[in-house]
Design goal:
33% strand; alpha+beta; D-amino Acid Aminotransferase, Chain A, domain 1; 20% helix; 18 strands; single chain; OB fold (Dihydrolipoamide Acetyltransferase, E2P); 7 helices
């Protein structure tokens, strides 16, 4: 979050400067004592400020979020607590599952559209830390164990509707956190690990995050050349939908330099329209360059096993890791049931 001292002094009379404490990635949960484990929520990180009737929501970048979530602004303003700073996550739930695409749809310039969505798919604030108490006391220097106790008390005081506000669960037992990681997904996409004896460290990667990773067998429905290269840069992945059509679901660029030449020759020999018979790749995307915006369709014969973390709107949200080729797997076996979609 950008420096907020001056902004919040103007609006709230606060001289508190807050950047959210962040996390560094790890492959496994830490061992030993003194850890608190929390779900990693699939939403927008947010720090909520309140002083009197003034409420502000700030994204991790420091940008204001309030205009996109007017229902949260109204809800926080109505709470029977005049002053607080809460660290949490804004989420949207649809049919009992968190929906990141519905959350992204809020970032829309038209106020009428935002108002409509705020009524149809209202957001919830999931609180996992408290940085200023209702009496105006800054809590940044207190240990997590003490801040968590105060957050629990805050939750009891506000007695909020859980559809609008909830205090995030936690565990101090590694076995329970490991069970969260092995789950099938849904509300969370991993576990955040925090030291009980640590203060809040604004802007520092002082926590550990372990993301839930799952695997799926996918059909290679096409490929893109690398930037300024005649060699393959990424494989385009597909899964069969309920209508038997091959939908584009993501990509993997985890291809070693040593195998690119032979793989390129193999793929070029398999080029054939249409590649994807359902949803097809678009043009340039956030990961593609001008050179790689065009994609080459392939016969749907090759199958790869990939590792992924999150699925949004029937697509892998991020790039995947190629684990192995699956010549033993029939392409027809690669459908959305693998990823619960």
């Amino acid at each position: 979050m950008a420096r907020q001292a001056m902004e919040n002094q103007a609006n709230f009379g606060m001289s508190v400067e807050v950047e959210p404490m962040e996390a560094k990635s790890a492959e496994a949960l830490p061992t030993g004592t003194g850890w608190q484990y929390e779900p990693k929520w699939d939403g927008f990180r947010c720090i909520a400020f309140k002083s009197g009737g003034n409420v502000d929501l700030r994204a991790k970048s420091g940008k204001p979020l309030g205009r996109y979530f007017p229902e949260l602004i109204a809800f926080l303003a109505s709470l029977p607590v005049d002053r607080f700073v809460i660290d949490g996550e804004v989420v949207v739930e649809i049919d009992g599952m968190l929906a990141f695409d519905a959350l992204q749809a809020r970032l829309h310039p038209a106020e009428s559209r935002i108002r409509k969505l705020s009524s149809e798919t209202p957001a919830r604030l999931v609180a996992f830390d408290i940085l200023m108490g209702e009496d105006g006391t800054l809590l940044l220097d207190q240990h997590l164990a003490d801040r968590r106790a105060q957050l629990e008390e805050f939750g009891k005081i506000v007695c909020a509707d859980p559809r609008q506000f909830v205090v995030s669960p936690f565990t101090r037992h590694r076995e329970e956190a490991a069970a969260w990681l092995s789950g099938s997904g849904g509300d969370t996409d991993g576990v955040v690990c925090k030291r009980l004896d640590e203060p809040y460290r604004p802007g520092e990667r002082a926590m550990i995050k372990v993301k839930r990773m799952r695997t799926a067998d996918c059909v290679v429905g096409g490929f893109r050349y690398g930037s300024d290269s005649n060699l393959v840069g990424s494989l385009l992945l597909g899964l069969y939908n309920d209508n038997g059509k091959l939908d584009h679901v993501g990509f993997t660029s985890a291809i070693s330099d040593a195998e690119k030449l032979d793989l390129t020759r193999r793929l070029e020999a398999m080029r054939e329209q249409p590649g994807f018979t359902g949803k097809a790749p678009g043009g340039p995307s956030r990961w593609s360059t001008e050179r790689s915006s065009d994609w080459q369709p392939l016969k749907p014969e090759l199958v790869v096993e990939v590792r992924f973390d999150q699925v949004t709107g029937h697509r892998f949200r991020h790039g995947t890791k190629l684990l192995r080729w699956r010549p033993d797997k029939s392409p027809s076996q690669c459908d959305f049931r693998q990823i619960g979609q």
